[in-house]
What we know:
CATH topology of the largest domain: Molybdenum Cofactor Biosythetic Enzyme, Chain A
Low-confidence stretches: 414-424
Strand order of the largest sheet: 7-4-6-5-9-8
CATH superfamily of the largest domain: MoaB/Mog-like domain
Largest sheet: 6 strands, mixed
Distance between the termini: 35 Å
Mean pLDDT: 91
Shape: elongated
Amino acid sequence: MALLSVPDALATVLARVSPLGPERVSLLDAVGRVLAESVTATRRLPAWDNSAMDGYAVRAADVSAPGVALPVAAAVAAGDAGEAPLPPGAAVRIFTGAPLPPGADAVVIQEDTEAGPGTVTFRVAAEVGDNIRRAGSDVEPGTALLAAGRTLTPGDLALLASQARLTLAVNRAPRVAIVSSGNELLEIDAGEPGRGQIANTNAWALAAAVRAAGGVPRILPILRDDRAATEAALAEAAAGADLLLTSGGASVGDHDHVGPALKALSGDAFAFWKVAIKPGKPLIFGRIGACTAFGLPGNPISALVTFEVFVRPALLRLQGHAACVRRPVSAFTVGALSAGGPRTEYLRAAVRGATDPEAGLWVDAGRAQGSGSLSSLAGADALVVRAPGCAAAHAGERVEVLLLGPDEPSVRLAAPFSSPSSGP
């Protein structure tokens, strides 16, 4: 039976995941979250006519030509009420952001003036509206500010703060239960591992990846190699989570109980087991009631690569993000790469800066690529994507790369594997 391709598996995952319900959070906690309500302005911006520059507020008719001199009647700074009218045939010294005095209809910037004792001479003529921000010119009450579904930026929060929005409805952050399976595992604070034991590093790596993707991770106790106990523990974990994430026990050995347990618990909602990906072929996906469930391989590299390719997009979709799959980019490979095999392969790589910025991005995949090589994760900030059956690449050739930084751009599911030059 042919393995499910990476694009087909990813499409299956995202087709079965939908955004969680809303929750109300404080304004500061809303940054990076997906807005679950549309926001309409209740306040005018600016609230009153004000000066866009330091200079002098005047009636344009009083400064109809260069060389006019006017007495300076007053000064208005930002924070002043500025309610005193502009006297006829006079100017008011004004500073950026200060309210425009009633009667004034222009501001001449100070660089175009020459101040004298109690007077100011204008080197230019004034036009009505010069250097004035009119009340409501930015936002009027009733203006649609932000639509539901938008990922909130610091700039958005500034706009919301101007409307005194102290709380917002955003899509809820997914609660993620993380379970590691295997008799060989030892909690990281349980002392030096004995012969045959390994530290449960996957749980912590996956919890960090969940948090980086906006989820709320919860590490649960290690599962021992017992079928009945595994099924009971996974059912309990799924009941209290939006997403269940297991590592280990996903293969088909005599001691691998996670796969059969997830399949049994998912029932008709079971989707697939095994994908044409390297590393990470024994990947499991299904749903246990309302909980999305992934069974990841136990090898550290396999677990994190499959998280990046499948789980991270699901977490983003649960939060309502429209763009949840990283956009591939083009880069030059530092070293030669072998031809692609039967599965889509993801090589850990480090981004290298180019001597000439115009020369483009370079990546170095010259590190151990074994699925158990934990040290190869250090400094790996990219994945080189090798399509099935692709030709070998010589040093200096272009390859497709996924950059793993938290702010790297993503694309919508409609084109998750488009060419590196494609837009979002």
